[in-house]
Write the structure tokens for this entry.
Amino acid sequence: MFVLYTAILLMIVICLEAYFVSSIRNEQMEQSTSNVRIAEMEASNYIQQLYSNAGNIEYSAYQVEDIQWFLEDSLEVYLKKKIDNYTKSMSIRYYGIDNFVSNLLESETRLESISFLSNANQRLSSYMRDGKTKTTYFESWEFHTIPNKLFRMGQLVVSKNFYDQNGNRNSIGSLIMNYNLNQLSDIAKKYENIEIAVFNSDRRLLFATGDENRLREILNEDGDVTKTTHWEDYLKSYIELNPVSDCWIIAYIPKNLAASIQNLWWITLILIGIALFAMGELFVHLYLKKLTDRLYVILEAMSSASKGKLDVHIDIPNNKSLDELDIIAENFNQMCQDMDAYIQKSYLAEIEQRNAELCALQSQINPHFLYNTLEVIRMKAICNGDREVGRMLYSLAVIFRSQIKEADIITIAKELHYCKKYLELFEYRYHNKFSFEINCPEVLMEKPVIKFVVQPIIENYFVHGIRLEATDNLLMISVYQQGKDIVIYVSDNGKGMTEEEVQRKNEQLKSGKRETGSIGIQNVHTRMRAAYGDAYGVSLKRNEPGGICVMLRFPGEENKNV
């Protein structure tokens, strides 16, 4: 049972752990996909801020007249105009392109460099954050590739056309701003296992926190890179894709990592599982110990019963919620009681029956010898013509034979037959002074009864109740069915007993006090109670106007324990 309960407990703990893991995975999956959306939104907002900032810089550039001269004229002409303008302004500090760039790089930390591209001079002038300035001239055939030459991985290049402010609105050049995208790395680090990438409409990868080579391969593959399904097929990830101006921001997390559980969670789940298993094992141990102790009590009681000690008793709790062991103990107690009662009944009944037979014989003469001798005498009397003596000897022989050959349980018919033969002997003895009647319904003739219960009552009548001086002595034997019981009434009109004597005799029968030297009413009552139980036996009542009625009650149904 311990192994079985341990296996069941282990399965329960495993199922609980599996349920917890599944729940945590689902929650982690929802959290991961939510983080992907949030990371993409933050990255998009950041890129949008850069484009907005570039628009602000473009607007500020139009406020500096010096920038238009820088883009329209050669450097010599630009410097001459700058000096003339400075002379006219009579100002200590002249605010020109250098001051504009310096202030801009100082205030905008995300700006790595700003470049001015002159269409007229095919000149690119770049101002770096470290204070360096670089001027490059291009041929006309490579002029359109200039923005690509400014591209740097991890930077966003924003180009704004600069228009002539004199009224013709022609493009005289461009402002090219290079923004660093390092803050996107900080956004990605906030969310575990989430990667962020930025590419432009030319499929050029601008920024990536993940595998750059793999992302470039995907951008070079055929297919619409502006669709989420394109990236899901290649990355096997949960994707969030959103355009901002001419860029596309993508945030993703691999599917195999989206539902991953942190090591701390694994440790917690393992500790919880161990704790649950340990608590369950403790409960199983205590339960089985209690169960084993109760089993030992039952086994010890069974061992005592097997050695013949049937008075053993197992204590049972006084409550309605009895379990299987309590039921076994209760049935065992009942079995021991029944066995003890059965043994007592069988033993006492056997003893009483043998005592009754021995006392009935009242002689040490061998019963078989006496029976055979009576038969020889009877046949001799018949041969001599004395048939009355023959009949008397036959009746006596029948009585002796009933004590020798019949079983302990006989039918009512046989019991009454033997009583009839017994009464016939006394009828010869008390000629013209005594008569008897026997009445029994036919349906009760074959009912079983223990042997030799009516005859001692009859003998008691002839010893104590017959009136020898009278000629109207009558003994009646009647058999009746009362419910499930059968009652044999043996009534007479003899000397009788007073009411006090009848009451005292009935109390004596109930108490079980035995009389010695006779096989009378007490003997019959004791044998009937031993055979049928305390509810059955012999009782007396007075007849009116005189005599006694003896009632013998026994069950009408056959009992295998009798």
About this structure: Residues 361-366 have pLDDT under 50 and may be disordered. The two ends are 44 Å apart (CA to CA). Residues 369 and 561 are 34 Å apart (CA to CA). The first strand starts at residue 111 and ends at 118.
